[in-house]
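Regression test case RT-17, inverse folding.

Input:
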């Protein structure tokens, strides 16, 4: 019977195989290690980006001094943050003072309610690099440092190690109970969250890097944390690349324990401030304008005022120009007395008055008598004739 013997595998070949398998595993495995250095409990939450699966856990409780490792896969993208001041019942329903995600322990696809300090990352596939940052665009609630452990070379630490809550302007403060330092200030809002204006939210006409510029409030965040995103277009000094197999996320880190950034990285555009954030002046440089708009409307009285209500050509008064004549008719009827009235009832044969002061001459008298219809007696006529003769003689004597 022939014995089959096996030759021992050379040590060098075994080392090559193990190194290859190790490198292969590194290129297809990523881990997030979350460490709680805060003096109080935190509740980390995770949110996967579009088209990537959720991590094994989307929410958990992490007491002070504890840590947890969460595995991931290449190509994963999403956010990780810490909630504070939370209270949940046995079914995981409750709420948090900062960073709440739908009032549940497991966020299950719900993002952080601002303000919250966010770690954002997109893991590369194969040999592609990772892109990561710490963002304060949605505000700030806890100090956060992200330290990548690179498979090749040295990767840069980023984040915000200072407690911005202690220097947060009053108009941005979120005041609560436990779950934060700074005299009851548990979080610091972004200017976009506090005021909702396009110039702070980089929206509307400010939705591009040319018109959306750093504001007074974003400068406060940038001075405290030069490597963290302070507003939407703060890419130049805030986005980093690396090929790492693990990212350590430390909440409430010790400032003196932060590793200095790699010397190949260009320095931040804004100089690092002293450890204590200086209070901003009472009136900020780029202060939000008062409720009155920048371009205030002109007063109610127009520049060119309309003429008074009286029209230019006023109608004449109510009395008509040509008034009707009075109601008395033009041609009035004559009085009721008839035109041809009957003579009075004086008798035709009325006796003449007894004395005739100026008797007519005899001829005239006779003519009158002859024209009369009366018939006088003869004695009377004789007497009258005698009187007529006497009157005529008398008158003749009186003439000159």
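Golden output:
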């Amino acid at each position: 019977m022939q014995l089959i013997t096996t030759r021992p595998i050379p040590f060098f070949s075994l080392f090559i195989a193990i190194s290859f398998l190790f490198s292969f595993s590194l290129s297809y495995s990523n881990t997030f290690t979350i460490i709680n250095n805060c003096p109080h409990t935190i509740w980390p939450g995770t949110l996967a980006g579009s088209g990537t699966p959720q991590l094994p856990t989307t929410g958990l409780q992490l007491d002070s001094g504890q840590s947890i490792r969460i595995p991931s896969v290449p190509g994963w993208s999403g956010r990780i943050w810490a909630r504070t001041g939370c209270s949940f019942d046995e079914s995981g329903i409750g709420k948090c003072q900062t960073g709440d995600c739908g009032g549940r322990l497991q966020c299950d696809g719900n993002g952080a309610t601002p303000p919250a300090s966010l770690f954002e990352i997109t893991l590369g596939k194969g040999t592609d690099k990772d892109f990561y940052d710490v963002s304060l665009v949605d505000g700030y609630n806890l100090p956060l440092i992200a330290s990548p452990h690179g498979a090749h070379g040295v990767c840069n630490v980023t984040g915000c190690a200072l407690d911005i809550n202690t220097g947060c302007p009053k108009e941005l403060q979120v005041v609560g109970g436990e779950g934060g330092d700074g005299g009851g200030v548990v979080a610091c809002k972004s200017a976009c969250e506090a005021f909702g204006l396009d110039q702070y939210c980089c929206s509307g006409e400010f939705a591009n890097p040319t018109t959306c510029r750093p504001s007074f409030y974003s400068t406060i965040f940038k001075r405290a944390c030069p490597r963290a995103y302070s507003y939407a277009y703060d890419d130049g000094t805030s986005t980093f690349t690396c090929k790492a197999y693990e990212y350590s996320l430390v909440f409430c880190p010790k400032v003196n324990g932060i590793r200095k950034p790699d010397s190949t990285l260009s320095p931040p555009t804004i100089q690092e401030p002293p450890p204590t954030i200086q209070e901003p002046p009472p009136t900020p440089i780029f202060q939000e304008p008062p409720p009155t708009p920048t371009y205030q409307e002109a007063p109610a009285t127009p520049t060119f005022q309309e003429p008074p209500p009286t029209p230019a050509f006023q109608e004449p008064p109510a009395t008509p120009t040509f008034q009707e004549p009075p109601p008395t008719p033009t041609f009035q009827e004559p009085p009721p007395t008839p035109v041809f009235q009957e003579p009075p009832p004086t008798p035709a044969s009325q006796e003449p008055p007894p004395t005739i002061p100026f008797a007519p001459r005899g001829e005239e008298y006779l003519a009158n008598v002859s024209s009369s219809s009366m018939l006088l007696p003869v004695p009377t006529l004789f007497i009258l004739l005698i009187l007529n003769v006497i009157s005529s003689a008398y008158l003749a004597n009186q003439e000159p």
